[in-house]
Amino acid sequence: MRLHLPLSRFRAKVLFLLGSTFALSCASEETEPVTPSEFVLTAPANLGTAVPFPQRNPFTREGVLLGKKLFYDPILSGNNQISCASCHQPEKAFSDGRALTTAGASRKPLLRHAPALQNLAWMQGWFWDGGAKDLESLALGPLTHEDEMAQNLKELVLELQNHVEYPAQFKAAFGTDSITSALIARALAQFQRTLITGNSAYDRHVRKEPNATLNNQELRGLALVRQQCAPCHATDSFTDQSYRNNGLAQTFSEEHEQIAWGRGRITHRPEDIGKYKVPTLRNIMVTAPYMHDGCFETLQQVLDHYTHGIVPSPTLDPTFLRTDGTLGLTLTQKEKVDILSFLNTLTDWEFLQNPAHAPLP
């Protein structure tokens, strides 16, 4: 894997490579298999260095194309009706616009809001509680969960092995005739690492591109975000990738396998109970509703919560403790409007409308 930085190359490469069809992979049924070709991932310079990719999953063109096909294919679900894209839609930054989705196999509301999928190559720890250590393990949870895709992995492998196209495509991507659940997860991980957003008005502004200066209100909002929000939404990733309790609840139920414990459910440490991963602010205007349970429909409600809705609990993040002992951030309504104006500049329309991320025809 090589990571290059110029933005122009980033846009051209991903559009070209992901916009391709599976002609090469399908052709392997008639020709000798070829060695998978390296995928050169390029990205905007202001995003910094990506997390090193696992050596067990080399980044290849064929692997990315296979992962994209699998992402949109309902064959991954037990009833062959639900795909990854059912809850992760490109135009919503790969979120789904629902508080708690009912798009899963059981049609029951899930217990957590479907998170956006963007800039995952820069992230560490996945799911709201960080329960997945890498992208390769991320997919297996939703695939097998009875309320999500309700798939039996052995049956899925058999179905893919008997498919008219997939055996050749797996061989083109991984050089083996044997399809496994691990290879399915690796292909999905490769595609998801290409979901890079970095060409918003804000990005063009910080890169000092021509005619990309933010207006005065947006600049005031940026200053407020850096002052008031940066402890959690840090750097140009707009998340410090920490786990925090932001004052949504006073107590945390042990029901549903302690799902309300958040990070504490994974670490079993009392000090982590009620903490959830800080999401990015990128494309936040299109990823409503907000929070791990989708409890706020608008960003105005989010900001109002942070100024006068914080609920105390033993693990509440100290960021929300004012010097006078009261709880919340100190923001006027005018300042909130300025922040909302700035958050608009984090919308990357090129990412949201990128044909490279759309399903293959």
TrEMBL record:
Heme c 1 binds at residues 84, 87-88. Residues 1-27 form the signal peptide. Keywords: Heme, Iron, Metal-binding, Oxidoreductase, Peroxidase, Signal. Residues 62-209 form the Di-haem cytochrome c peroxidase domain. GO terms for molecular function: cytochrome-c peroxidase activity; electron transfer activity; heme binding; metal ion binding. Its cofactor is heme. The keyword Transport does not apply. Gene3D superfamilies: Cytochrome c-like domain (1.10.760.10). This is Cytochrome-c peroxidase. The lineage of its organism: Bacteria, Pseudomonadati, Bacteroidota, Cytophagia, Cytophagales.
